[in-house]
Amino acid sequence: MASLGQQLKKAREERGVTIHDIAAATHLGARFLQAIENDDYKILPGGVFNRAFVRKFARHVGMDEEQAVRLYEEQLRESGGEPEKSSYLGLGDEMEAKASSGNSALLTGILIVLLGAIGAAVYLAFFRGSDELSPAPALVSTPTPQPTATPTPVESPGASPSPTATPTPEPISGLRLQITATQDDCWVSFRADGGKNEQVTIAKGETREFLADEKISFIRFGNLPTLNILANGRKLSIEKLAPNRKGLVVDNVVISKDNYQGFIE
Description:
Distance between the termini: 56 Å
Radius of gyration: 29 Å
Mean pLDDT: 76
Largest sheet: 4 strands, antiparallel
Order of helices and strands: HHHHHHHEEEEEEEHE
Structural class: alpha+beta
Number of helices: 8
Strand order of the largest sheet: 4-1-6-7
Number of strands: 8
Low-confidence stretches: 84-104, 125-141
CATH topology of the domain at 175-263: Lipoxygenase-1
Oligomer: single chain
């Protein structure tokens, strides 16, 4: 029986598409797709990510997704299981530019929508309100002061200036997370509110922003201890986020606008 990679390659060639065509459509790296066709999974991140890659590949070439995953799992059992991966270090070097650009475009679109909404609110609150103000009173001429007029008192040099009111910042209605990889690359799989699952790689020194109305569910954090996480501007404690952590990879962490204050350092 043909292997999974052989069947995917045959389905792709029958459709007349190249590896790079599929990479552009699925936002998966061409190296990963080529490795799947060669039944060589050593460079893939492993676990749920490998299965997600296989599903995307199969879907795009018209192969049954469940059958593709079953073949993948059978091949793993025959070969003794997945190659052991001690951590998710270095995954950023393996990711193709296409994968990161697709996720960046999604985040950029969300930011544009939010900025547009904020701009509209400011316009309604300040500029439209000015149209309803009463007309300014007419100027009244002031007589020329007489030479004997009392001079205006001068404020003493030591007097303190009158305090000015500091505007109160508007509260953030949703949830904004800013995640920075401080020491090494990190792989993150997440879902915002009720949206679809997405995967991104945060390169060392890079900051990614995640936005949601209610919550963000992190299906997996790779290399969690290297991350600096801010929720609505407040730094979160890694120990509070994952109190039972035993390694670098942590699954199923949910941060919401209601519970994030419990994770603050």
